[in-house]
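Example complex used in Figure S2.
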Amino acid sequence: MARKTGSHSDITGPRVRAAALQLFARDGFAAVSMRQIAAEVGVQAGALYLYTPDKQALLFDLLKAHMDDVLSHWAAEPKGTGPQAALEAFVRFHIRFSLTRAEAVFLSYMELRNLTPEHFAQIEALRRAYEDQLEAILEDGQAAGIFAVPDTKLATMAIIAMLTGVNTWYREGGRLSRDRVEQIYQDMVRRAVQA
Amino acid sequence: MARKTGSHSDITGPRVRAAALQLFARDGFAAVSMRQIAAEVGVQAGALYLYTPDKQALLFDLLKAHMDDVLSHWAAEPKGTGPQAALEAFVRFHIRFSLTRAEAVFLSYMELRNLTPEHFAQIEALRRAYEDQLEAILEDGQAAGIFAVPDTKLATMAIIAMLTGVNTWYREGGRLSRDRVEQIYQDMVRRAVQA
DNA sequence: CTTGGAATTGAACGCGCGTGCAGATACCAC
DNA sequence: GTGGTATCTGCACGCGCGTTCAATTCCAAG
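Predicted assembly (390 residues):
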């Protein structure tokens, strides 16, 4: 079995993952059948169980991989010097990354309730770890007297919600370029937290 | 039949609506069966069809009623004088209303894809009408030189996303009171748009 | 060319789904 | 009490679901 041998270790087959991601994002986890995913891959339904123990684990794999992806890419992002630059880097990164991974981002906050409690807790922890990255920046700026934020946790949630919201309306080739959007959001965020 | 006679006109039975709202919000539209809703009401599944033509229309009724509710309550909200006061009123209203109607708000942006295109268009139009209320405030302030917003449409989406995000983390009896949350968000929003 | 394990099929399982409908029941005007 | 109508039950229908598994096909190593 592919699951126990091969060089993929415990990674779900790429073609299966891609199909599942696309369909889950478009129609919702509960509305997509294993047969539909299989058809997209060009295989019979039973063959999917060579790559995942069950449907729910397939969803978890997608969310887990996405969160790992977010965290590792943020870790590798240049952050400049000081809280101001770091905040700007975060805003730019979050918007850019969310737009290039729109389906995964969408899944990650729409389908959490379809995870088992154990899997949910894992994703939740990764999400919190990401939020903590932003909160640390705000705390630094607050300590340095650059930012005036009454509650860093609230400000963190507010900023992330605002940034993630870009996914709901931004369309490639629309009125505003991605660069322009990033710039405007940076201005708004900077003013919202500045001392 | 209740649907064709009675004083309810075409309004779905209140008990059915309440049960559907609660279950759809908790488990998702696709994951809730008509039998579960019926059980919650204390009735057999077939009886639900006295109140709704089908499952999808039940969802639409909930979303439509919510959007009407939002718009009529905002219309009745005192808005003070001038863009600054109006913006504060909007922020306060949106947070307060979203928190008291958490389930409906959640449904309204999670289950849009389960509507028929016609129903979707109706809800979308109401949503845009609501967004236009905020955008008009920003435009007024911009024209008056009170606000400095490069793009009122973008700012509208950013602010609404930020405010609606409160629903994802706020818990009654938590660290921050509702009044305090409203106050902090008002400060952030005001600073984000102020000239 | 043989062989053996990996990959996949195809059929089957039990189940719950949304919905329809004939018949039973509850309720209210007379 | 009787009649009629609003309400609801109980069952049925066809269907697609997630998942399993024996049987088959594929393919590289010997």
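Chain A has two domains: 1-53, 56-193. The radius of gyration of chain A is 19 Å.
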